[in-house]
Prior knowledge:
- This protein is α+β, with helices and mostly antiparallel strands.
- The protein contains 7 helices and 11 strands.
- It has helices at about 5-15, 45-50, 130, 145-155, 160-165, 175-185, 200-215, and strands at about 30-35, 40, 55-65, 65-70, 75-80, 85-90, 100-105, 110-115, 120-125, 255-260, 260-265.
- Helix 1 (about 5-15) packs parallel to helix 7 (about 200-215), helix 4 (about 145-155) packs across helix 7 (about 200-215) and helix 6 (about 175-185) packs across helix 7 (about 200-215).
- The protein binds a DNA duplex through helix 6.
Amino acid sequence: MPELPEVETIRRGLLAGDACTPSLIGQRVCAVSILWERTVAYPSLQEFANLIQGTVVSEINRKGKFLLITVDERFVIFHLRMSGDLRMRRESDEPSQHDRLILHFCSGWKLTFTDTRKFGRVWLTPDPQTVIGKLGPEPLAAELTNEIFHEMLLARSRQLKPLLMDQSFLAGLGNIYTDESLFTAGLHPLRVSSTLTKKESSDLLAAIRLVLAKGILEHGSSIDWVYRGGNFQNHFQVYQRAGESCLRCGAPIQKFRVGQRGTHICPVCQPERG
DNA sequence: CACGAGACCTGTTCGC
DNA sequence: TGCGAACAGGTCTCGT
Length: 274
């Protein structure tokens, strides 16, 4: 599920709650269940359980694909990786087969971290920088200007797709939103970052922001068996559309591998040479 | 520094 | 129908 728009959707849901679910804010932790030990990246299982006990949730923030939940003077930081999901459930609700960690609240609700593939991780730390300190800038932040972004691209000599997916370069893009952004910008995934003109660079940043904003507006993408109610999958221009017609020019969408990741382009709209 | 391969995991889909 | 291979929204580590 989770790239920036999906994590942001989860954050907003936990923050606001809905008709059937309370907000995560204000919940007091009365116990924790750790069902897959490797889920806890830091500290030890024992310390994690001891330190979180009795704390109260006061804030939910996001940086890139990380979700930061403030509990008293510390932060519970989740990374959902490939298949993680977070939701509020009643204590009386049936446990899910893939629950990996559960925060039990005094209110009778619980926050369940469900993660089929077990790649997801959680940290509990007083200093978030130890976990998210190496992340690049938020693509949606106003401080990231066209000039800065162009300089960032010129400072590297890397293929655009792996560079955009590098979280230390830019925080939040994954496979789907990278492919969609490159298509929107009309740039080939293998273009070398240092060759981009000022215009191409600002077009790319605008494309990234447009695609991410649409993704958030549609509550993220719901693919395969993991369904959260997002709708962005119905707006894909190239992702998962190999062989289908480009919605802009009609040429068949191509799929190939870039750095072990399935990559989708329109060969006409995204020529190899700029 | 840049890049590819392998590892970490489970579940679904595809090809024979 | 059955079975193995390939593939999936991510990231880390290692070798070249």
